[in-house]
């Protein structure tokens, strides 16, 4: 059994437009032995974008995240400790915190973000 952490974009695509995901990611999602984690950081980022009308979501998007089998990852002090040690490659604080969580938890990050893959973090796409 393997765990994976979705970045915000991957979460949106997996739940709304899965055809945008890579074939590899679609295969990982189809495997019933895999576990999927969504960070509170992604929920926060998506909530902000929705509240600013920069993102339109299905009506029950947030309610369905937990009921869809994703486990939720809250932020912990160790994530902020890892965040402070990251080189400043990526300017997005949400993505940087997801990177720190992925590293701290030892969970590969599913992402297509070309800036994230420049970090010493295990990514999948």
What are the salient characteristics of this protein?
about 45% helix, alpha/beta, five-stranded parallel beta sheet, Rossmann fold, about 120 residues
Protein model, in words:
The chain is α/β, with parallel strands linked by helices and 125 residues long. The protein has a single domain (2-124), classed as Rossmann fold. The chain has six helices and five strands, in the order E-H-H-E-H-H-E-H-H-E-E. It has helices at residues 8-16, 23-30, 40-51, 61-67, 77-85, 93-105; strands at 2-6, 34-39, 71-73, 109-110, 123-124. The chain has a five-stranded parallel sheet. It starts with a strand and ends with a strand. The model has no long low-confidence stretch (mean pLDDT 95).
**What do we call the CATH topology?**
Rossmann fold
In CATH, the homologous superfamily goes by the name: 5'-nuclease
Q: Given this structure, which CATH class is correct? A: Alpha Beta
**Regions with pLDDT < 50 over 5+ consecutive residues?**
none
The shape is: globular
Distance between the termini: 18 Å
Number of domains: 1
Task: State the helix count.
Answer: 6
Rg of Cα set: 14 Å
Q: How would a textbook summarize the main sheet?
A: 5 strands, parallel
Helix content: 40-55%
Strand content: 5-15%
Q: Structural class of the helix and strand makeup?
A: alpha/beta
* Run of helices and strands: EHHEHHEHHEE
Mean pLDDT: 95
Largest sheet, order of strands side by side? 3-2-1-4-5
